[in-house]
User: Fold this.
Amino acid sequence: MKPIAKSSKLENVGYDIRGPVLDKARQMEDEGQKIIKLNIGNVAAFGLMPPDEIIQDMIRNLPEAAGYTDSKGLFAPRKAVVHYCQEKGIKGVTVDDVYLGNGASELIAFSMNALLDAGDEVLIPSPDYPLYTAVVSLSGGTPVHYRCDEGSGWLPDLDDMRAKITPHTKALVIINPNNPTGALYPDEVLRGIVELARQHGLIVFADEIYDKTLYDGVTHTSIASLAEDVVFLTFNGLSKNYRSCGYRSGWMVVSGDKKRAKDYIEGLNMLASMRLCANTPGQLAIQTALGGYQSIKDLVAPGGRLARQRDLAYDLLTQIPGVSVVKPKAALYMFPRLDPKMYPIADDQQFAYDLLAQEKVLIVQGTGFNWPEHDHFRVVFLPNTDDLTEAIGRIARFLDGYRKRHSS
Assistant:
């Protein structure tokens, strides 16, 4: 019989964070091998659990959580998001502008689906969080990658962004704080992005899921707080700041020039209704999380667990010959560079396979984040200091062997 093929819409869709190298790691685990995973920001897997008050609130409310909610979500958590927007300086947001989702990922997908027709272009950072490239392609659009500059601390290259705007460009994406680089964008860069959006009538999609995971006393500015005459969609949620990945509890806020986006908002409402509602237990965690004690501050403060692990990972990686790293100001990741003269890597996925096979350490190769060269990889610094030291020690040993094999 004729084989059943996947849709051609998936031809340009990939998600290497959970891709072929992870499949190999699962096979090795099934064989009884222990893998140190530096590939995914699944915080609970590393013993970083949600605050108890969030868990208790969900438990207490669970008996009342069996029914559908409004398609945009329950009123109380949406109102809590409105208050959070006010704290962040985003003006003009009402409860009706807030959509709750099964994580921010669901909302990112349906916001692109509601916007894009075949041939429409969306500017996406390189390196990116690969979901954006995937959902733009799946929505019929064309992802166009603008360069983030490692030499300037991985900040967006505004000239490159400007050069890639065409009559087909409908939107631009920023991920701030950034995954995979840990960069935090200063206000002058954000204002430059707003001006580009203003001049060309673009929607700004702002992913701010790490906006509380900040180090060294830095502060985060929501780009939507900088203008009211541009359309912004801001994405956030509980997964990272509140260590609640599995609760799938996220939100999207539409702000700025909403009158111009009236028809698009109708499309968002239609897609929100089609999926009926986000999971109710996850919604019930939002009000308590946003209004409660912000324990993330303890984790990122000097001496806090995440700050210590960031510093350790940075120190260990930069001690390896030919490895350079921009020290992250935020988030949970580093995006180290391998000197191509010392490490002439032709296929960075194969590099990740070989590291896994030899040292049982799982990373994600740089091209998995739509970085064009085979000279970077991403690590998470979530494991405790002992495991992190062991993992990076294994990477160092692997790279030492690689250098010796490829030295001329």
The mean pLDDT is 93. The first helix runs from residue 20 to 30.
